[in-house]
Amino acid sequence: MLFNMEERERPLRVTWLKGRTGAVLDHTNLGVWRLDDERCLLIDSSNGSARIAKIAAALEREGLKIAAVINTHGHADHCGGNAWLQANVGCPLFTSEEASLLVEYPILIPSQIFSAYPPRILTNRFVTPEASRVAGKLPPGPFVFENTEFEIISLPGHSHGHIGIRTPDDIVFTGDALITEEVLEVNRMMVILNLDEFLATLERVGELKADLFVPGHGEPFGDPARLAAVNLDFVNGMLDLLLQHCAVPRTREYLMKELIKRYGMSMNSTQYYLLLATLSACLSGLTRQKRMQLKYASEEIVFIKK
Predict the structure, then answer these.
(1) Residue 71 buriedness (CB in 10 A; 0-12 / 13-18 / 19+)
(2) For 179, which DSSP code?
(3) How far is CA 231 from the centre of its chain?
(4) Are 102 and 132 in contact (CB under 8 A)?
(5) What is the pLDDT of residue 4?
(6) For the chain, which terminus, N or C, has the lower number of CB atoms within 10 Å?
(7) Residues with Cβ < 8 Å from 38, sequence gap 6 or more?
(8) How far is residue 137's CA from residue 121's CA, in Å, rounded to a whole number?
(9) Please, are residues 164 and 72 in contact by the beta-carbon 8 Å criterion?
């Protein structure tokens, strides 16, 4: 999930990367594994019915029908095409156990962001996908589909149960575990659910080796260590800013204003709540790390650096 939800129209075609592994490089990148001459397995399903219908048509021009889908995580821009695929293609869907809760009960996504049943601004297709049925829940390790073995890599932090997928061609699809520099420049922020897990994932993915890495957004890359360092520098910069402001007690709303000003973000209501969720994850992480404390004072919650 990104802060900038504008979808720029791009030509829809499969870029074959190596062997049987390809990608549809779009606003949200999709992975393609050619099972045989007529069928493929898809990694993620884009954002909504209209887009995945066009992608399915592009695959059909390659002579391929979608036989199965693996979701890297349960955000609408990665699983928003699931319901259309199940209704029109009938293919099985796989994801991690944690992500399956969001895929099957998508109202949990905006409810988590809003901390209650969400207002309508958080139930649009950019945040809340249609519900879909999960056929299999994937633990980390090998996953065999029709005699083809994929590797499922645990990469949590951006979302519950976020996973990466390595194909037999040694190409890794990283979902939103890493944000490319060009995407970070446009969005000026990243979505974080669990700070500790996110930081551990940056370390883990930075140590991965593969022939090529395909992110959920942006261009494929070859050096995850360099990009992980860029992501880590960005997060540490944001944490340092919060700690500086919290030399005296600060409310979450005050810190929101300072983040928006610091990063020059132009926001709508939906983006505000996404940033608020990321801020909350950072504050929660800092309190668990005992670098900050949370207090109730004068009828409000404040955060102060330890």
Answers:
(1) buried
(2) -
(3) 14
(4) no
(5) 56
(6) C
(7) 63, 64, 65
(8) 30
(9) yes
Burial 225-249 (b: 16+ CB within 10 A, else e): eebbeebeebbeebbebbbebbeeb
Question: Any long-range contacts for 116-121 (C-beta under 8 Å, 24+ apart)?
Answer: 121/269, 121/270, 121/273
**SS3 label, residue 172:** strand
Q: What is the pTM of this model?
A: 0.95
Asked whether the predicted pLDDT for residue 194 surpasses 90, the reply is: yes
Question: Which of 7-16, 20-29, 49-58, 104-113 is predicted least confidently?
Answer: 7-16
- The Cα-based distances of 230 to 225, 254, 268 in angstroms read 9, 27, 27
Quick check: 304 and 295 in contact, CB under 8 A?
yes
Q: Taking residues 135-152, what's their average pLDDT?
A: 97
**At a CB cut-off of 8 Å and minimum separation 6, what does 67 contact?**
35, 39, 40, 41, 91, 146
- Whole-number Å distance between alpha carbons of 16 and 18: 6
Q: What burial class does residue 79 get, using C-beta atoms within 10 Å of its C-beta: 0-12 exposed, 13-18 middle, 19+ buried?
A: buried
Length of the chain: 306
Q: Which of 255, 117, 138, 278 is nearest to 195 (CA)?
A: 278
HEC readout, 18-84 = ECCEEEECCCCCEEEEECCCCEEEEECCCCCHHHHHHHHHHHHHCCCEEEEEECCCCCHHHHCCHHH
Residues 129-138 have pLDDT tens digits of 999 999 999 9
pLDDT in the model for residue 186: 87
- Residue 296: is it exposed, middle or buried by C-beta count within 10 angstroms (0-12/13-18/19+)? exposed
Range 174-207 burial, b when 16+ CB lie within 10 A, else e: bbbbbbbeebbeebbbbbbbbbebbbebbebbbe
